[in-house]
């Protein structure tokens, strides 16, 4: 017997606070672009494993909804599905004023 299983829902947060180098904001969440449903044998639910692969370094500009990685889903060691991982918010490059604020905050607060 087989069962259909939702592994990840559209918009589900896959990883929180992913750093964005020289970006404003400096961190974003990464979410699932779409729902991923798989067909598996009953009782194999515990064999499902998710791996999120992100770009080595995120740099601005990043547009909300832009692909920043991929979520691979495995049943044991067999890839059974994959979907885009996207930015949950837009990120712009730090302005000179924002960069100075970061420097001063770092200097004052350590």
Write a structural description.
A hairpin with a 2-residue loop joins β7 and β8 (78-87). With 110 residues, this protein is mostly beta strands. Helices cover 13% and strands 51% of the residues. The mean pLDDT is 91. It is built from one helix and nine strands.
Q: Strand order, biggest sheet? A: 2-4-8-7-6
- The helicity comes to 10-25%
Order of helices and strands: EEEEEEEEEH
Radius of gyration over alpha carbons? 18 Å
Are there runs of 5+ residues with pLDDT below 50, and where? Answer: none
Task: Please sum up the structure shown.
This protein is mainly β. It is 13% helix and 51% strand.
Layout of secondary structure:
Layout: E1 2-8, E2 13-19, E3 23-24, E4 27-32, E5 36-41, E6 48-54, E7 67-75, E8 78-87, E9 92-93, H1 96-109
Antiparallel strand pairs: 1-5, 2-4, 3-9, 4-8, 6-7, 7-8
């Amino acid at each position: 017997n087989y069962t259909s299983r939702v592994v990840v829902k559209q918009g589900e947060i896959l990883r929180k606070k992913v750093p964005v180098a020289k970006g404003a904001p400096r961190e974003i969440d990464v979410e699932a672009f779409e729902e991923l449903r798989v067909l598996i044998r009953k009782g194999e639910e515990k064999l499902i494993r998710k791996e999120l692969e992100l770009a080595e370094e995120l740099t601005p500009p990043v547009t909300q909804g832009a692909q920043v990685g991929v979520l691979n889903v495995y049943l044991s060691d067999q890839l059974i599905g994959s979907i885009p991982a996207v930015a949950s918010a837009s990120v712009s490059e730090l302005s000179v004023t924002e960069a100075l604020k970061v420097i001063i905050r770092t200097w004052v607060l350590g």
